[in-house]
Specification:
The protein has a six-stranded antiparallel beta sheet, with helices on one face. A six-stranded parallel beta sheet has the order 27-26-25-24-23-30. Helix 4 packs parallel to helix 5 (349-358) and helix 6 (379-394) packs parallel to helix 9. It is globular, with a radius of gyration of 28 Å. Helices cover 20% and strands 31% of the residues. The chain is α+β, with helices and mostly antiparallel strands.
Length: 789
């Protein structure tokens, strides 16, 4: 039987005359931080102080003994970042140049000093650029010239920390006769019968030995013969339980065990979990353009999505527990789809395992983002090799439902001035429309592929045409008011978002001792977007009086504006189901403490946007939409059964007087939207009025003017402690009340975000992690919209 020996211990990192202890998996930056050589680049201006690290070559070493009673010993690296030479006792084992691949070297009978020498990623990228020529990109860094996590080189939410190291586990594998080299599982459903086809490749030390395969799943067992270097085992599992996305059903998972046999002796084994489900992507043309609707087990979905970036700029620090925590946060916000963005990595098995268990659909980008990528060698061969490896590696996971060729590169070619600058040079089109769809069709025909995001499906249309395929909506954040989300109905909104700073405690930890201000040095350093604070201020000024010299107020209002902006988009687009079939918010998470579009900041704290997503992505949603000069009430029902809410509309004054009231009958069918016109007499007649819709504990409000034009009363409310929380009782209208729990204690969390209270109403906000509850301290941590003076 194959034996594995982990090689995580005993490594050193060469740095000057005295080597440093090294952690494997890990990277140069984390080892240098652990040794006290460099500061934490997440704190203050530390990022700038460690820029030299990415320009250096680095060597990892340890002693290695490969002695074994088995016939062959392989040295296996699950991930090397990125360009390296591997040698053993001075003998070159190989050279590698791709972070997204694994590597295997025969070291049978060899022992001595194992050395992994990493070349600076900058040096390699610049050398490739010199050979192949300049290609345009959204950023000046040379990330498109090597197969490495692009956002290592910085992004508009990320630091420039160009890593190197053994970033995934390394081990010795000892084996005899034969081993399983690759298993390609095709999992389908045929009229209630689960069909599993395991295509197996083997590596041998002795070709003449007869070999067999034995597989079991769901109580069914099957055998097959190995013919030369491969074989296929097929199993049919009756009456399988289907795997569903969360909110649509359960997520049953089946254990698969495959054994490689020589006679009765097991030589190697492969074990995974699978789920039985079907997935299609409906891209048929219709009266509105070209659709983009995911269909799972025959059920058409409105995808409630978030974009995922690497959860740490040093991805070796992300463990199984951290993946689980972050993805549970996503599920807790009503999310059912996570898009792994193309400037990151193919994530570890732990990520996809959690998605399988939580019912989170995964949209997987191939790692290409915001740049023209050369298609010549040495890149082309690496792209194909990494695609083949990772497509097969991820195939067992039922959560994976879509392969996507790239992020914004087709759009960039057409709109960002690339085409004339390239003058006929390769830029990646051959990958997205040729190589990658061929690899997916050959290896994983059970899942759909799309060439890019955004992509209209044809060069006959603009790549980002909202009427066709996927659409990225960035004009609003960059130049317009978020109310302009309501001006179009894209078929599928794969990216849109609005910025806000991280939680107060996160800023305090990241910027120790700094007097916080929107333009203080540390706050500006932790804002990577082009004119990010300018866009925040202009977006704020459209709705509020921008506070001057009051950081706490600025911090609160920018977070309110983020939640309001995302709500404007999602409520509008969900109300247009099935024309619009999904929204994927940019973004769920952060990779360090930064002002960004994230709902969860770099320290894992939920912004108000996170709690707003819980409302926006719930199965049932009420929304009031300005439409055709009037107001429309939309009852969005993503649950299976009909919804006939007891619905009340109230036209009110900001002083709290009820000016008109009516009960409205509406029935939204299962997975459908019902829309009714608001009676004219209930439509607010001026800035001092607003409309409230209540049904089944849900509320929608509509104010006809921006907050800066509304004559709000001075908010008055009482605060008292409740078991495990704080109760607030309103004496006036209180708009967008927020308890910033991390101001009470850095470890404290509140169970809700923004809430609007009418006079006489109360809300209890649950708080956990607060060591010494105190009503006055709670009042000081409460913020709400105030009248413009």
């Amino acid at each position: 039987m194959l034996e594995a020996t982990p090689l995580g211990d005993g490594w050193i990192l060469r740095h000057g005359p005295d080597p440093l202890p090294a952690s494997v998996p890990g990277c140069v930056h984390t080892d240098l931080m652990a040794a006290g050589v460099i500061p934490d680049p997440f704190l203050g201006l530390g990022e700038s102080e460690v820029a030299w690290v990415g320009r250096r070559d680095w060597t990892y070493e340890r002693e290695l003994t490969s002695a074994s009673a088995q016939e062959q010993t392989d040295l296996v690296f699950d991930g090397l970042d990125t360009v390296a030479e591997i040698s053993l006792d001075g003998r070159l084992l190989g050279k590698v140049r791709n972070m997204h691949r694994s590597y295997r070297f025969d070291v049978t009978g060899l022992s001595g000093r194992l050395s992994v020498r990493f070349v600076s990623a900058y040096a390699e990228a610049e050398a490739v650029r010199g050979r192949l020529g300049e290609r345009p990109a959204a950023y000046a860094e040379p990330y498109q010239y090597l197969r490495k996590m692009a956002c290592s080189f910085g992004w508009d939410w990320g630091p420039t920390l160009v890593t190197a190291g053994i970033w995934r586990p390394v081990r010795l594998e000892h084996w005899s006769t034969a081993r399983i080299a690759r298993v390609r599982p095709l999992v389908t459903v045929d009229e209630g019968v689960g069909v599993v086809e395991l295509a197996v490749d083997v590596e041998r030390t002795r070709v003449e030995v007869p070999l067999a395969l034995e597989a079991t799943v769901g109580g069914v067992r099957a055998r097959a013969r190995i013919d030369g270097s491969g074989g296929v085992v097929r199993l049919r599992v009756p009456d399988v339980r289907l795997w569903w996305p969360r909110g649509y059903g359960e997520q049953p998972l089946y254990d698969v065990e495959l054994r490689l046999l020589h006679g009765d002796a097991a030589l190697d084994a492969w074990r995974r979990r699978i789920g039985f489900r079907t997935v299609e992507l409906d891209r048929r043309p219709d009266a509105h353009g070209t659709g983009f609707t995911l269909v799972v087990n025959g059920e058409r979905l409105f995808a409630r999505g978030v974009n995922w970036i690497p959860d740490d700029v040093f991805p070796s620090r992300i463990n199984r527990e951290r993946y689980r925590e972050r993805l549970e946060q996503a599920a807790g916000a009503g999310v059912d789809l996570v898009r792994i963005w193309g400037g990151g990595v193919y994530e570890s098995e732990d990520f996809y395992d959690a998605c399988d268990e939580l019912g989170l659909l995964v949209w997987q980008d191939f790692p290409f983002a915001c740049a023209a990528y050369p298609e010549e060698q040495p890149l082309r061969g690496e792209v194909e090799a990494e695609a083949r490896e990772n497509v097969v590696r991820l195939m067992p996971h039922p959560s994976l439902v879509l392969w996507n060729g790239n992020n914004e590169n087709l759009w960039g070619f057409r709109d960002w001035g690339w085409e004339p600058r390239l003058a006929g040079d390769s830029w990646g089109e051959g990958y997205y429309l040729g190589l990658l769809p061929r690899v997916v069709a050959e290896l994983d025909p059970t899942r759909p592929y799309t060439a890019g995001s955004p992509w209209s499906g044809s060069w006959d249309r603009h790549p980002n045409d909202p009427a066709h395929g996927t659409h990225h909506s960035w004009e609003v954040w960059n130049r317009e008011d978020y109310a302009d989300y309501r001006l179009s109905v894209p078929r599928f909104v794969a990216e849109f978002g609005w910025q806000a700073p991280p939680a107060y405690a996160t800023l305090r930890r990241a910027l120790p001792g700094e007097e916080l201000a929107p333009d203080s040095p540390g706050v500006l350093h932790h804002q990577k977007a082009d004119d990010g604070n300018g866009k925040l201020e202009r977006g704020l000024a459209r709705h509020f009086a921008v506070p001057k010299g009051d950081f706490d107020r600025w911090h609160y209002l920018t977070q309110v504006n983020q939640a309001r902006a995302v709500a404007a988009g999602i409520e509008h687009w969900r109300s247009h189901w099935p024309v619009c079939a999904g929204t994927v918010v940019w973004q769920l998470n952060d990779c360090w403490p930064v002002t960004s579009w994230a709902a969860i900041d770099g320290d894992g704290r939920e912004k108000p946007l996170y709690h707003e997503l819980r409302r926006l992505y719930a199965d049932r949603l009420l929304t009031l939409q300005p439409r055709d000069g009037g107001l429309v009430l939309a009852a969005v029902n993503q649950a299976a059964g009909d919804w006939t809410p007891a619905l009340t509309l109230r036209r009110m004054s900001v002083g709290g007087e009820v000016l008109g009231q009516a009960a409205v009958e509406v029935t939204a069918g299962g997975r459908a939207v019902a829309r009714v016109d608001v009676p004219g007499e209930l439509v607010p007649a001026g800035p001092e009025e607003f409309l409230v819709a209540d049904a089944d504990g849900m509320r929608a409000v509509h104010f006809p003017v921006p907050d800066r034009e509304a004559p709000y009363p001075t908010p008055e409310f009482d605060v008292s402690l409740a078991p495990d929380g704080v109760t607030v009782t309103a004496r006036t209208l209180v708009r967008d009340l927020l308890l910033q729990a991390d101001r009470l204690d850095p470890g404290a969390r509140a169970d809700r975000g923004l809430v609007t209270l009418l006079p006489g109403e109360e809300v209890t906000i649950g708080v956990r992690g607060w060591k010494t509850p105190d009503a006055e301290r709670a009042r000081a941590a409460l913020y709400c919209v105030e009248p413009t003076r």
